[in-house]
Design a protein that fits this description.
Blueprint (H helix, E strand, L loop, with lengths): L2 H16 L2 H26 L4 E3 L1 H14 L2 H11 L6 H14 L7 E11 L6 H9 L3 E6 L4 H14 L20 E11 L12 E6 L5 E19 L5 E8 L5 E8 L6 H5 L4 H10 L1 E10 L1 E8 H8 L22 E13 L22 E3 L4 E7 L5 E7 L5
Parallel strand pairs: 2-3, 4-11, 9-12
Antiparallel strand pairs: 1-14, 2-4, 5-6, 6-7, 6-9, 7-8, 8-13, 10-11, 13-14
Helix pairs in contact: 1-2, 1-5, 2-9, 2-10, 3-4
Length: 401
């Protein structure tokens, strides 16, 4: 048994011995709950066609800020996450979860990172710097916000480094307010892995995909025949949808693809019914079945301004110079968050990693096996099996965009 998995077993065992196993399960639920709310808020605010976000990365950033927050700022973060990072059970759970995330193996790479870019000369609390050093691959970076171009380049270089060079977009830092000591909060998540059962390059075909506006586009559609977990469900409005689980090597992370059964059912009907309980129901009640799975090849990259999103979730004071209370970071400065940037990238291809070369055009033999074909807008999420944490969640309404 891998060391981190063993740690999870030990934690759960300890929970049982101490009569607090409920807290462990509650943390799994809270992580999923935050992921769903973050995703639904982004969909509503940004109204994007394609979207990907890493709730684990954003939650990790908020956890780091909770160490430095005081008063109402602390309370808002605690209420949004649902937990207190000073709680020993929470700390152990998060340590185990983050440990597994950074334990890349079996051709799987997961890079979760967050950084606080803080104005040079700000006297920092030793307690906070110690906490930051131990929290989820976090770091403190000193910068000079009066030098706009240099700060922008510094943040962009950090993002590129922590996403395997995949995300290279310059950061739109905007203007900073004079007279205040400022922080830029940056979080990233990068995932790269191989499927447990690979999609065959020779089976990839150019097939129709019905986009959100009803138009038809031709996309590279991958295919595999495999034993997968599969389920058929209904929303509260009786709209049917199907879910399939596609595991990556090592079985520690799986992609769940959720697609409306009826082509006339909008993806938004399913998105609005998302909840931690519904995801838990899906993952626990799906059945093992051999079937043909069709999934379009796609690559998504999203930039999210958390200053627009977090206030909707109840975290607003940290962005207000007159209300932010980060005396846990520095007693001598009126700190507030001037920028809160999140970037996520995911690429889905036949081998699970970046594909190259020419796609072979073949016709698949007809089969009597059940078929799951993601040929219309769908949502997906990557879930860590041991913690139940949603590493990524997103939607694909046009794989070519």
């Amino acid at each position: 048994m891998p060391p981190v998995c063993a740690l999870f077993v030990l934690l759960c065992s300890c929970c049982l011995n101490q009569g607090s196993c409920h807290m462990y399960e509650r943390l799994r639920e809270l992580n999923t709950e935050f992921a769903v709310k973050l995703y639904q808020t982004l969909v509503e605010i940004e109204n994007r066609t394609n979207l990907v976000v890493s709730p684990s990365s954003v939650a990790s950033s908020l956890g780091l800020m909770q160490f430095g927050a005081r008063g109402n700022t602390f309370t808002q973060i605690e209420n949004t996450l649902g937990y207190n990072v000073y709680d020993e059970t929470v700390h152990n759970f998060m340590k185990a979860m983050h440990g597994e995330l950074t334990n890349s193996s079996q051709e799987t790479t997961i890079r979760l990172a967050c950084a606080l870019f803080i104005q040079k000369g700000t006297p920092l609390s030793a307690q906070f710097t110690d906490a930051a050093a131990l929290w989820a691959n976090s770091s403190l970076q000193l910068t000079n916000f009066t030098q706009y171009n240099r700060t922008t380049t510094q943040i962009s270089q950090w993002i590129t480094k922590n996403t395997g060079g995949g995300i290279q977009t310059l950061v739109p830092c905007g203007l900073f307010r004079p007279g205040f000591t400022q922080i830029a909060l940056v979080s990233t998540m990068y995932f790269r892995s191989r499927w447990k059962t690979k999609f065959s390059f020779t089976d990839t075909q150019t097939l129709p995909f019905i986009s959100m506006d009803g138009s038809v586009v031709k996309v590279p559609m991958m295919h595999q025949t495999a034993d997968v977990n599969y389920g058929q469900f209904e929303t509260t409005s009786l709209e049917k949808f199907t879910v399939v689980e596609l595991p990556y090597l090592g079985n520690s992370v799986s992609m769940f693809v959720v697609r409306p059964t009826d082509r006339n059912t909008p993806l938004s009907s399913i998105e609005s019914n998302l909840s931690s309980k519904s995801i838990s129901l899906w993952t626990s009640s799906m059945k093992r079945i051999k079937m043909d799975v069709f999934l379009p090849r796609f690559k998504l990259q999203s930039h999210s301004d958390l200053r627009m999103v977090l206030p909707v979730l109840g975290v607003s004071d940290l962005f207000d110079p007159s209300k932010a209370d980060f005396k846990g970071i520095s007693e001598h400065s009126n700190l507030y968050i001037a920028q809160a940037i999140h970037k996520a990238e995911i690429e889905v291809a036949e081998g699970g990693t970046r594909a190259s070369g020419v796609t072979a055009m073949v016709l698949l033999k007809r089969s009597r096996m059940p078929v799951f074909k993601a040929d219309r807008p769908f949502l997906f999420f990557l879930r860590q099996a041991s913690s139940g944490s949603v590493l990524f969640i997103g939607r694909v309404t046009n794989p070519l965009h």
